[in-house]
């Protein structure tokens, strides 16, 4: 099956940028929870609710929630 | 025909004996090899490297040279994305050596600086970098002085094909982390940064390739010897810990392929029955008796799911509690954190606190929460160290109980 352009391949948090604002948890509660100190934990790397996750990423004031899409394969050149 | 007499002494350390390092990081009783001495022992760089750079690249892959700063990633593979990015860029000699238990890089800088410089020049030629930066701990005065002396010797002989600049790195664990080094070399704040693609940690600009001192000294040696006579050894710092979280006497030795943990401890004059923290503060606790036969060599350790990190064997007397050790080191690492990521800023002090109160269940919960969530490898390293301490602690407890019943 052709990957849907809405599919999220991998969710990532740039913890260096994240300040624990917490908007992401409100906007994407099915994929993100908070730890003891108010910082996000990703529940599903392949987001269960891609639309919510994208909205959360757009809302993050520190751009700390990163959504890697299926149609952007990461390639690493290998020479040895 | 006999081999040249000096072949046997073509090694990373200038002596087969362990080298003692003072508290302020100075090498005792050993002389630095001048450029003349260096050429006498190893030959001139250009004469051996007359082969095109790509041959040395091939040789590097062939001998399986890995990064000795702790990552043990293939050096030959690390160069590919830099070459793909086109000519230009920087090779960094990473002499920040932020682990208190490590002294090997400082020893190499103080005894064979020309081997390090040759490695940096080789790497720069291979990837087409135009500049070399020596990134060196601001406290390492003696090593900086001797490296500067060596650089000046080379300038006088016109034996530098690249410009070299010396930058003093702020002391601390995070200053040697490669993304922090790249930031520092670029003039930004020295702290780990977000790396989108680990193969290309410099991002979109000109490549900045960070190599550990020992890695470069090895590349320098390989350029002189070729794979057949390459000294396939490992540098190890055996550091004694007089009390939890404190490093005392440090001895640096060159470990031959096939040498075991027991051999290393014996050569360093350490007790054969002791706790060992292999790989330093982000390493793994071992019982030296259970692990006596463990080979101290990066590839073989990897097969055992272990790492020597930056070549550290920290020795702690068996009379001490592993939990106290883990707590002290965790507190120390919490203080070394760059303070950028929540799970590290809040998690490590909480973890140290839980260990201090013997709250093992809480500690294990915290390790789960912290693991995999730092912007750099520091918190993960501490968590693994703590988990290995807890595992070894419970193993030794259950053995004592077995003795009683």
Question: Can you give a write-up of this model?
Answer:
The complex is a heterodimer of chains A (80) and B (405). Chain A has 80 residues and is of the alpha+beta class. Chain A has one domain (7-71): 2-Layer Sandwich (Alpha-Beta Plaits), CATH 3.30.70. Chain A contains two helices and four strands, in the order βαββαβ. In chain A, the strands form two sheets. A two-stranded antiparallel sheet of chain A has the order 1-4. Chain A has a two-stranded antiparallel sheet with strand order 2-3. By secondary structure, chain B is α/β, with parallel strands linked by helices. Chain B contains 15 helices and ten strands. Chain B has helices spanning 35-42, 45-48, 53-62, 75-84, 104-111, 113-127, 141-156, 178-185, 213-229, 261-267, 298-303, 322-336, 342-356, 360-370, 378-404; strands at 19-21, 90-95, 131-137, 163-169, 208-212, 233-240, 250-256, 275-278, 284-287, 312-316. In chain B, a hairpin with a 5-residue loop joins strand 8 and strand 9. In chain B, helix 3 (53-62) crosses helix 9, helix 5 crosses helix 6 (113-127) and helix 6 crosses helix 9 (213-229). Chain B starts with 18 loop residues before the first strand and ends with a helix. Classes of the chains: A alpha+beta (80), B alpha/beta (405). The A-B interface holds A 13-18, 20, 35-39, 41, 74, 76-80 and B 61, 74, 76-77, 79-81, 83-84, 192-194, 197, 199, 340-343, 346-347, 350, 369, 373-375.
Radius of gyration of chain B: 21 Å
* Helix content class of chain B: 40-55%
Sheet with the most strands of chain A? 2 strands, antiparallel
CATH architecture of chain A: 2-Layer Sandwich
Class based on secondary structure composition and strand pairing of chain B = alpha/beta
Can you tell me the number of structural domains of chain A?
Answer: 1
Q: Could you report the average pLDDT of chain A, rounded to the nearest whole number?
A: 84
Q: Tell me, what's the shape of chain A? A: globular
Gap between N and C termini of chain A = 35 Å
User: If you average the pLDDT of chain B, what whole number results?
Assistant: 93
- Which range does the strand content of chain B fall in? 5-15%
Helix content of chain A: 10-25%
Poorly predicted parts of chain A:
73-80
């Amino acid at each position: 099956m052709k990957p849907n352009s809405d599919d999220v391949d991998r969710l990532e948090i740039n913890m260096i940028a994240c300040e624990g604002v917490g908007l992401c948890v409100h906007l994407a509660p099915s994929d993100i929870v908070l730890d003891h100190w108010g910082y996000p934990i990703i529940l599903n790397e392949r987001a269960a609710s891609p639309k919510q996750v994208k909205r959360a990423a757009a809302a993050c004031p520190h751009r700390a929630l990163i959504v890697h899409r299926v149609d952007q394969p990461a390639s690493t050149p290998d020479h040895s | 025909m006999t081999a040249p007499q000096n072949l046997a002494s073509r090694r990373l350390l200038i002596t087969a004996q362990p080298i003692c390092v003072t508290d302020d990081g100075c090498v005792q009783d050993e002389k630095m090899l001048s450029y003349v001495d260096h050429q006498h022992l190893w030959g001139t760089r250009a004469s051996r490297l007359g082969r095109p750079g790509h041959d040395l690249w091939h040789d590097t892959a062939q001998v399986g040279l890995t990064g000795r700063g702790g990552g043990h990633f293939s050096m030959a593979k690390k160069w590919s994305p830099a070459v793909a990015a086109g000519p230009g860029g920087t090779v960094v000699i990473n002499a920040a050596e932020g682990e208190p238990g490590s002294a090997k890089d400082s020893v190499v800088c103080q005894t064979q600086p020309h081997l390090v410089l040759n490695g940096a020049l080789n790497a720069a030629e291979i990837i087409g970098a135009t500049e070399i930066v020596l990134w060196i701990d601001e406290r390492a005065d003696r090593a900086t002085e001797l490296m500067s002396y060596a650089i000046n010797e080379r300038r006088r002989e016109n034996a530098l094909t690249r410009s070299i600049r010396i930058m003093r790195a702020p002391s601390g664990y995070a200053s040697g982390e490669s993304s922090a080094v790249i930031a520092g070399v670029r003039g930004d704040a020295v702290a780990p940064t977000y790396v989108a693609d680990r193969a290309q940690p410099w991002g979109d600009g000109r490549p900045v390739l960070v190599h550990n001192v020992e890695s470069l000294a090895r590349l320098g040696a390989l350029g002189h010897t070729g794979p057949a006579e390459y000294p396939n050894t490992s540098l190890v710092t055996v550091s004694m810990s007089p009390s939890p979280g404190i490093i005392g006497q440090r001895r640096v030795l060159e470990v031959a392929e096939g040498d075991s943990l027991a051999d290393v401890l014996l050569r360093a004059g350490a007790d054969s029955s002791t706790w060992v923290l292999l790989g330093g503060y982000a390493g793994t606790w071992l019982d030296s008796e259970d692990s006596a036969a463990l080979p101290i060599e990066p590839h073989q350790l990897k097969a055992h799911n272990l790492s020597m990190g930056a070549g550290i064997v920290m020795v702690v007397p068996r009379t001490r509690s592993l939990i106290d050790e883990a707590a002290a080191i965790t507190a120390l690492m919490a203080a070394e954190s760059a303070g950028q990521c929540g799970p590290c800023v809040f998690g490590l002090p909480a973890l140290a606190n839980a260990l201090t109160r013997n709250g093992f269940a809480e500690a294990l919960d915290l390790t789960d929460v912290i693991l995999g969530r730092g912007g750099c490898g520091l918190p993960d390293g501490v968590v693994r160290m703590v988990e290995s301490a807890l595992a070894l602690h419970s193993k030794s407890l259950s053995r004592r109980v077995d003795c009683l019943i």
